[in-house]
């Protein structure tokens, strides 16, 4: 102390300083991120979650067949006509569970975006078309969830597959899809093609340059006019809202304050269980006009010339 008097700190000052600068995982403004109390990030902050998430996938057996058998040209033609050829050519994607866990911790269902320190990012229609060559324009994937009889399934098999499956494959009003493998394996041939380079570049969080877009085949950018459309996307019971106005930097444009999005907290509780005989066109009748008039909801902004 060199002969000087001890220095006593005012406890009130220490408390005030701690209150002003203490760390808090909650959003500064709760009007947008309204689900923080139940979000995974809060559990991590409290030390109650430290495990890597398990993943579930339903395409494993399909890719095993792709690797083992060559595909018949007529089947390949049907895949191309369905618009799924890009998915087929991409091959089996590798699953990085640690990466997925990190992304889940950053995902906010209130805005349908990942919240990173650098800003918000999300998977856009542009990503879907450029990476998987999937069609992103057209009618919603909806239909009538009607109950089919065994006779209906036999007619469908004959019309689509060219044969009627064995009687034991039918169960009341359903058809055992996995049992069809035994009926089709002798004719199903798929090539062993690997394009892992495409998968490795799926999570590049920078906008595609104009030069890159122009260098792509036409089928990778044919629907570029709707890449920035702000509208709901449908697949039977699932309704996801495409919100490009929150991630304009992914398109090389300036990011401004996005339009508020009305989040439905019960959104992820909906499924098709017990919903037989449901006409999903009628079920989504209020939201369908937003997609049908999608060209009126294309988001735009000035070109961003600042470094990202």
UniProtKB/TrEMBL annotation:
Q: What transmembrane ranges does the database entry give?
A: none
Q: List, alphabetically, the Pfam families matched.
A: PMD
Looking at the record, the residues that make up the Aminotransferase-like plant mobile domain are 83-185, 199-301
Origin superkingdom: Eukaryota
Query: Tell me, which GO biological process terms does this entry list?
Result: meristem maintenance
Q: Which PANTHER family does the UniProt record give?
A: AMINOTRANSFERASE-LIKE PLANT MOBILE DOMAIN-CONTAINING PROTEIN (PTHR46033:SF60), PROTEIN MAIN-LIKE 2 (PTHR46033)
**What protein does this entry describe?**
Aminotransferase-like plant mobile domain-containing protein
